[in-house]
Design a protein that fits this description.
It is built from one helix and 21 strands. It is mostly beta strands. The chain has an eleven-stranded antiparallel β-sheet with strand order 1-2-3-4-5-6-7-8-9-10-11, with no helix packed on it. It has an eight-stranded antiparallel β-sheet with strand order 14-15-16-17-18-19-20-21, with no helix packed on it. The protein has a two-stranded antiparallel sheet with strand order 12-13. One of its GO terms (cellular component) is cytosol.
């Protein structure tokens, strides 16, 4: 077969596109019987060059292929909204790449055999890392088993900043909270809530000692001190 043509197989697969000396070479579309589909370049009957591969599960890869596998630079869209942009070797994420997670966090770094390399363990964030949330907020600091735990800094889109201790994604332990107007609070936190005694410092240097009780409303205390 030579030129442009269509081939159908008994199992339901079909190809329509360019042929050279009886093999798929050039631009063409191949559809598997399970609904998977490739639209792109072919060399010697193999996916090779730039193309798009889609699955019935809504997975989608756009990028380079070699010998029928994802190889080179490409973008993989996962069904849950997650996305990887980076290098591929023999069908696996290997090299440099960026992974966008569904919770808004981002991993940028090295990959080996489909797993994030660096300060990760068993493909979970463990060690130092940073995320940028969809809201625009950022966290830079420690992780344990994919959870924000340890020492870290959180910066909100509005300019608030917390520096201190964390457990399971919540402020927990000693920390400093900086307000956009220059005021700051230093004290203890339990499960994301200011608890116990702390020092509030106005931007002019004046300081007040504050005690937060379990039943005290944060709004009520904030209004009393005009934060």
């Amino acid at each position: 077969m030579e030129g442009y043509g269509t081939m159908r197989w008994p199992g339901g697969e079909y190809y329509f596109g360019d042929w050279m000396a009886g093999v798929r070479t050039g631009q063409g579309i191949y559809r598997w019987s399970d609904g998977k589909r490739y639209d792109g370049k072919w060399i010697g009957d193999e996916m090779a060059g730039k193309g798009v591969l889609t699955w019935p599960t809504d997975d989608r890869y756009e990028g380079q292929f070699l010998n029928g596998m994802r190889h080179g630079r490409g973008t993989y869209h996962f069904p849950g909204g997650e996305k990887y942009i980076g290098d591929w070797v023999n069908g696996k994420r290997t090299g440099s790449g960026v992974m966008f997670f569904s919770d808004g966090s981002i991993y940028m770094g090295d990959w080996v055999d489909d797993e994030a390399s660096g300060e990760w363990f068993n493909n979970r964030r463990t060690g130092k890392g940073a995320i940028t949330r969809t809201s625009g907020g950022k966290y830079i600091g420690d992780w344990i088993n994919d959870n924000i735990t340890g020492q870290g800094i959180e910066i909100s889109p509005g300019g608030h900043k917390y520096e201190g201790q964390w457990i399971d994604g919540k402020k927990h332990g000693r920390g400093t909270f900086h307000f956009p107007n220059g005021n700051k609070y230093v004290g203890d936190w339990v499960n994301g809530v200011r608890t116990g005694q702390g020092i509030f410092t106005w931007r002019n240097g004046d300081q007040y000692e504050i005690k937060y009780s379990k039943n005290a409303s944060r709004d009520m205390i904030a209004n009393n001190f005009h934060i």
